Amino acid sequence: MKKRIHNKKISKGIYWAPRILSIIFLLFLAVFSLDVFEGNYGFWGNILALFMHNIPVIVLGIILWISWKHEIVGAVAFILAGLFFIFRYIATAVMNGLEWYYVTWSLIVAGPAFLIGILFLTNWKRRKK
After folding, report:
1. DSSP states along 73-126
2. CA separation for the pair 52, 46 (Å, rounded)
3. Would the pLDDT of 68 be above 60?
4. What pLDDT, in 10s, does the model give residues 88-102?
5. CA atoms in the 13 A half-sphere facing the CB of 120
């Protein structure tokens, strides 16, 4: 009886962990778009800049919405997003010269995406059984 309750708590945790972490991750990414207010773009320029900066957040938000029921979508998409962020920072490093902070930035942004993808994959595998 006690083991069954413990397994149910673990299952609930595995179910909610990637969803909650995804929301936190999307908010973390959205914070980076606030730098548009440093420029002098005017009202509509700021709106456009905010939209452009938040395209990855919007895309990942739609993926999270789909992944809420279909975990395999979240697993694949968040792992691919992590790979995309790493390749983007590698491309920046190649074009601008390698700086130490490119490596840390790639890990800070891609690491949570990989973790979320792995958690969605784990949840999908558990449900499949």
Report:
1. HHHHHHHHHHHHHHHHHHHHHHHH---HHHHHHHHHHHHHHHHHHHHHHHHHHH
2. 10
3. yes
4. 888 888 888 777 777
5. 29
